[in-house]
Write a structure and sequence with these properties.
The protein is an alpha/beta fold and 538 residues long. Helix content is 25%, strand content 16%.
Length: 538
């Protein structure tokens, strides 16, 4: 039996609202994704992960779902989705949906009934309700990720409901058997239509502590800049979410998904997002214990360009050898990779190095739209922001909109994204980095990305091989990917200056054609140009 399709696969993350607008309303849509399938296929990826496609009031831009079985009106119709799914499969692309099953929108019929049906109503316990304290304050000290108490009082129930994120995102109660079954049935619905799997939003948050135990504070002496960046980071989220028993829930979800293997398609894939207390709640389990795979925010939050951020992550993974990781440097929640590591004036050379590194690490790889173009973070004024987090913490942070601006396709109005007024402005920083311009330039970041993906796909070592680090001095990172008799050395100069290093393990190796920057091999020593990424066959 061959390996599952998702092991070593490369998935392209499409943020639908910003990808391509087919009808001129300023919002990307499903027919727009279908129109660009030839482009996506030209990258050489194995599939696409679509941001949530369901109806939503867009308090959190689709991550507040109002109907799990429907399609957001400005994205298209159910028929549009089916056409996209069929067309993607015809292109040889898998389709993975983003499902938000830990919470819903407050306009979801489930919550409306839980709110209005009374204490004895059929959905009374489908959400996390608790009595206020005697003075009317919140039931405990749990804080929201988006600021303030993670509770909202509702006089109709004379109780508070829990929301880990916005007040408009009430927490679904997975301790209710009926609510849990309703959430699992969402997966059945879309798998029956032929989707190939799911990315589960905030997969560590399904369960809460039924006793409502307060969260402990992060000790003052241990607080970092990251902890101080959001109020909710100042406590350890041990009881509102991230419980050890979350592991059992993850396994239930995986088994539910795997039950569809062979029905209307082949093997299915389910992976999760974990942003807090990752080891505690199941982020690093084996594919047979929890979900098939997972990614954390460790690599998404990294900002210092040095070998250490990679080595630290692999030190964590070493404690969980059966885990199959999903690797991501950027997505709709994190600043663009090249800007995060290189600042405002980051070079294309750095973009290519980071893309090469992403494709070289062991796991299933996620490429956020535009990373193949080397797009930097967009700068937006406060009046242009649509993200509630950006507005909350302005001007400390611009929120998440700087990585959500429209995909730049061609010169001209809205950089080819729409014929209308884009929901977020097309970024001035992206005007010279369009698909059209880079497609025509053989030395562009786009064409390097295509070559890098092809190199990975054709090498068993780069796709499935184990990873072992080479002993090289900073700022050069080196490791070997090995599968059977094939061994590929991967070297990355994480410096804006050329470097020459002794590397005895490279004695007798041959430089491969795919590379970013230049390299010169002299026996067991190698010279690397600034931000070079090179590969050698051992």
């Amino acid at each position: 039996m061959g390996r599952p399709w998702w092991k070593g696969a490369v998935l392209y993350h499409v943020y639908v609202r910003s990808f391509f607008d087919s009808d001129g309303d300023g919002h990307g849509d499903l027919p727009g994704v279908e129109a660009k399938l030839d482009y996506i296929r030209s990258l050489g990826v194995d599939g696409i992960w679509l941001s949530p496609i369901h109806p939503s009031p867009n308090r959190d831009w689709g991550y507040d779902v109002a109907d799990y079985e429907g399609v957001q009106a400005d994205y298209g119709t159910a028929e549009d989705f089916q056409r996209l799914l069929d067309a993607a499969h015809a292109h040889g692309l898998k389709v993975v949906l983003d499902e938000v099953l830990s919470h819903t929108s407050d306009v979801h019929p489930w919550f409306v009934e839980s709110l209005t049906g009374g204490a004895d109503g059929p959905k009374a316990d489908w959400y996390v309700w608790a009595d206020p304290q005697a003075d009317g304050t919140a039931p405990n000290n749990w804080l929201s990720v988006f600021g303030g108490p993670a509770w909202a009082y509702q006089p109709a129930r004379r109780r508070h409901y829990h929301h880990k994120f916005l007040r408009q995102q009430p927490k679904l109660n997975w301790r209710s058997e009926a609510a849990r079954e309703a959430a699992l049935s969402v997966l059945d619905h879309w798998l029956a239509k032929g989707v190939d799997g799911f990315r589960l939003d905030v997969a560590g948050t399904f369960l809460h502590d039924a006793a409502l135990t307060p969260n402990p504070p992060v000790p003052m002496a241990e607080r970092t800049k990251y902890d101080w960046s959001h109020a909710g980071n100042l406590q350890r989220h041990l009881h509102d979410s991230n419980l050890p028993e979350n592991v059992e829930t993850l396994e239930v979800i995986r088994r539910r998904v795997e039950a569809h293997d062979g029905r209307n398609g082949g093997e299915r894939f389910v992976f999760g997002e974990f942003s807090e207390e990752e080891e505690r709640c199941g982020a690093y389990l084996s594919p047979g214990e929890g979900l098939h795979s997972a990614y954390t925010f460790v690599l998404l939050l990294a900002r210092t360009l040095s070998p250490q951020f990679v080595k630290d992550h692999y030190a964590t993974l070493a404690a969980h050898p059966a885990h199959w990781p999903t690797i991501s440097f950027s997505n709709h929640d994190a600043p663009r990779t090249v800007s995060r590591f290189g600042g405002e004036d980051a070079s294309p050379e750095l973009a290519r190095l980071l893309f090469a590194l992403l494709l070289s690490l062991k796991g299933t790889t996620l490429i956020y739209q535009g990373e193949e173009l080397g797009l930097p973070q967009a700068s937006l004024r406060r009046d242009q922001l649509r993200d509630p987090v950006g507005d909350l913490y302005w001007p400390y942070t611009g929120g998440r909109d700087g990585c959500r601006t429209p995909m730049p396709w061609s010169p001209g109005h809205a950089l080819g994204f729409t014929a209308g007024t884009p929901w977020l402005p097309a970024a001035a920083e992206h005007a010279g980095l369009t698909v059209e311009a880079q497609d025509a330039d053989p030395d562009s970041t786009l064409n390097f990305a295509r070559a890098m993906i092809e190199f990975r796909r054709e090498s068993a070592a780069m796709t499935m091989g184990e990873l072992s680090f080479l002993d090289l001095p900073d700022p050069v990172l080196g490791f070997v990917r090995r599968d059977g008799a094939e061994a590929i050395a991967c070297l990355f100069n994480m410096s804006a200056e050329p470097r020459f290093v002794d590397a005895p393990d490279l004695e007798g190796a041959s430089l491969l054609e795919v590379r970013a920057g230049d390299a010169e091999l002299r026996g067991g020593s190698i010279g690397l140009s600034e931000y070079a990424a090179v590969f050698l066959r051992l």
